[in-house]
Structures are given as structure tokens and as C-alpha cells.
Amino acid sequence: MAKKRSSKPTEPTLLPISVDVDLIRFERNLLTLGFFGAADPRNEIQRTRVFEKEIERQGHRVRVKVEFRGSELGLPTTADRDKFIAFLKILNEQKATRGKITNPVRFTGYRMIQELGLTRNAGIYEDIADWGKRMSDSTITSSQVVYLATKKVYTDDTLHVFARFKRSGVSSLKKSTDRQEGFEVELADWLLENLNQRFVVPEDFNAYKKLTRPISKGIFGFLHVAFHATGGRPVEKDYADLCNELGIKSYQYPSKIKSTIGAALNELVKINYLSKWELKRMVTKTGYKIILHVGSELTQFMSKYRTDRKLLAESTPDEPQTTEADLAAVNRLVEHGVLPDRAQLLVHTYGADRVLDIVDYQETQMTSKRRRIDNPAGLLIYSLENNLPIPLSFITSRKRKEIEADAKAKEEKRDREEKAHMAYMTWAEAELEQAIAKRFSASALQRKVQEVVSQRIKKDLRFIRVDGEQREKLAMQFIRKEIREEMDLATFDEWLGKHSQFSLF
């Protein structure tokens, strides 16, 4: 008798595939409301979660509440978030092709497996099916929480994410590598409208794939919204509230907090989405708060893919932000025959950097004497829509500029370091000269030199062998060494902190 398969969702580890940005756009409500829990489903399946709080909205204090309810399969988890992000990539490509997302959305299980970077086996198809069921069965009861972008209101309603989920085309082949299974999703009207209205937050799927902890993945999306709201300034978050939104247990003792959520925050520091974090006791009430400092990778990502800097509670649908890089990418596509409207859509979907890199590489293929490209526009569109990789050995013009800029920056930093060290040595020498002059008059210093010479002659054979003039020079060096060791002289780093003109960064 076959063993009954457990209904508990698994938490597969996503494999990092590329270091380039893999842009996805996450619907804001699902990202910020904590729809995907970060609790470990191997310990306990969560079927309900509720949290409420007071927020400031348009100058007024408003009490908001959200409740999630699931079936026997439980509420969506981190593994479901992984699959939903892969699903968002499929939706983005549909929008790029058709101009908008429409129901139903069809995709193969193998396509989702490819996006996740997982091993193809029979179990993963069952996991995808369970994911679709959880997404369909779970409900969100909103009390002034879920924002409807078309109506521009916060709703009091009970909502689903998927209106319908269907598994189709199940193969009877035994080998998992030969299976061809299809899935069909009908998005709920509110979600479909919000995605088409671009009520979304850009994220980098490749950065997300570097994370292994469910809590890290849960905090990942929160960081984008929080730091956009502050303009990159440090973010303070009530620890208990954060745990509630993530669907995880909160603890009272700092040591336990650091070993749980702290380990997740350290993983975000490792990928440079945070530069550091701090745990502080709150002054106005009992408990702790976490202070988050933005990292260089997230800062760079946000500067390229800007979203509305307002908090979700005050935000409106994003409008496309056109940059110089976007215009350059559109022009490069148009030069090769892509229609302007289609070029703009491709740049908006895949990002200017990705478009420019693809154009750079395919231009080398177009000019090859061994082949002739009859439809360069089609080749570029096909390469973008199918996420075709660029050979690692190929250096794009953008990457070449980055390498040159990095080399120049390192050279300039070395020059600054040398100048700073020279300035420090000059300062230290002047401080020593002042200390000597303060301690000895000219005649007293000469007597001290002779005293040191007399002492050294008695016990230092090497000292005896040098001539008189050299003995006095050596004696002076011994005196300078002794006085410098007695001085409380600032270290190089301490001195540098007081002389901002020599900043090394």
C-alpha cells in the first residue's frame, strides 16, 4: 500500500542562477500584509492568522485589521512565496507580449521548475498543485487594509487571491523527466486589476534566491517598502509587530531574539541588503525594537528601479519612471527594428541594463561573417522574453565601464590612502617634536644625549663600534622612541576620523 503523502508544504532551497538582476514586480498588498508566512511548516501548519494595529493615514489615526484563513493544507508559506514569485515572472512576460495580464493564465510545471532552479521530479509537480490549492483556498478578510488600485480605496471585504486553479495535461509517463503537466490560474479580479495598474514593488529574484532562511525571505520584501518610505534612512520596527506580520513566534530575551530573527537579518547583511542591524529596548512600552540600516546592494537596486517612496497606507499606483538609461535602451532596440512602443514595454519589463546587455551581445552575433541575421528585432525580443543567458566570457559595454570605473576608484582610493598616511606621519612627527621641546631645553637635550651615549657604551658592543657622530644620532633615536611610547598619541584611524578631508570612502 502506497504511503500517504504529507500535506505539509516543503521548503526547497532555491538555487542561485545568475548574478544579474532578475526583475519581478510583487503586488503590494500581498507583499506588505504578510500573506506568505515565514513560520516553519514542518513544526506546525498555520490555518489562521490575525493581526491588527493603528496606523496614520492622511493625517488620521485608523484601526486596521487583517485575517487570513486557510483549508486543511494550511496558509501559504515561504515555499509558496517562491512559487508565486516564479508565477509573477510568467505574468510579467504575458503583460510584455499582450500589453496586459488576462485570465486565465496557463503555464507548464516544467516552466515553473526552471524559474525556481529546482530538480525536476514527481514530487515537485505535486508541490505546485498543493501551492495552487492553498492560494485558491486561502481568504483575506480586510478591514481597511487591502488597497484597490482601480477604485483608489481601502476595502472592507473578504477576498481570494486565485479565483480558480486547475491542473491539466497530467502525463502517465513514469519518468519524472518526461512528464508534461500544465496548470491554469484564474486571478481574482482585485489582484488582476492591481497588477495591471502597476500597484507593485520591484524586487530582484536573483538576490532573493541567495537567501535560505524563511524569515530572511519574509523580511526581504518588507525592506524594499520600508527603505523607500524613509528614503534610505534607518528603519525602526517593533520586534513583536514584525514577528506577528511574519507569522512567527516572538521571544522576550535578547539572546533568543538574536538566534532566531537575528540570524535571518545576518543573512540579509551577507547579501548587502542590510549594512547592519541593532536590537534596542523600547522606551515608551515594554519590548524591543529592531533598527535596520540599508545595504549597498539594496540602495543600488532602489536607485535603478524606483517605486513610490510613500508608505503603502498612503501610496498610489506607480507611474513608470523614465531614466536616461531607459531612453538609451529603447533607442538601441529601435535601431535594430523594434517598434518604439514595443521597445518601451521591453525596457519596462526587463530593465535597461538587461536590454543593453542583450543588444551588446547579439550585435556581435549579427556582425559575424559565419551567419546572417534576417530579423534582428525578432532575435532581440526572443532573447529577452526567453531570458537567454549571455556567455560569462562576454564582457558587455556596461560591464566594461563598471570594471574601468571600479579600477579607477581603487586607484584613487590608494592615492588617498598614501596621502592620508603621509599626512598622519607628518602630524605625528610634529607632535613628537613638540613633546621633546616641551621636556628638554637645547642644552638639557644635549646632556641627555651624552647620558644615553655613556649608558650604551657600557653595555652595547655594536654601539661602541660606530663613530662619535653616529653614536649621538643613535642616542637621539632612543630618546625619541622613549618619549613617543610615553605619549598618548592618536592611532591612524582615530586621527583619520577627525580629519574628514582625508576620507578614504
What share of residues are in beta strands? 15-25%
Number of strands: 12
Mean pLDDT: 80
> What gross morphology would you assign?
elongated
Structural class, from secondary structure content? alpha+beta
Number of domains: 3
Instruction: Note the total helix count.
Output: 20
Summarize the main sheet.
Answer: 4 strands, antiparallel
Strand order of the largest sheet: 2-3-5-6
**Radius of gyration, whole Å:** 32 Å
Alpha-carbon distance between the two ends? 67 Å
Q: Which bin fits the share of residues in helices?
A: 40-55%
Which ranges are low-confidence, i.e. pLDDT below 50, for 5 or more consecutive residues?
A: 1-8, 172-176, 307-320
Description:
With 505 residues, this protein is of the alpha+beta class. The chain is built from 20 helices and twelve strands. Helix 7 packs across helix 10, helix 12 packs across helix 13 and helix 12 runs parallel beside helix 14.
Notable characteristics:
3 domains; four-stranded antiparallel β-sheet; three-stranded antiparallel β-sheet; 50% helix; elongated
Question: What's the layout of helices and strands?
Answer:
Blueprint: E1 23-27, H1 28-32, E2 48-57, E3 60-69, H2 78-98, E4 105-108, H3 109-116, H4 122-137, E5 139-148, E6 153-160, E7 162-168, E8 182-187, H5 189-196, E9 200-204, H6 205-209, H7 214-230, E10 235-238, H8 239-246, H9 254-259, H10 261-270, E11 274-281, E12 288-294, H11 296-304, H12 324-335, H13 340-350, H14 352-366, H15 376-385, H16 397-439, H17 442-459, H18 461-464, H19 468-486, H20 492-497
Antiparallel strand pairs: 1-9, 2-3, 3-5, 4-8, 5-6, 7-8, 10-12, 11-12
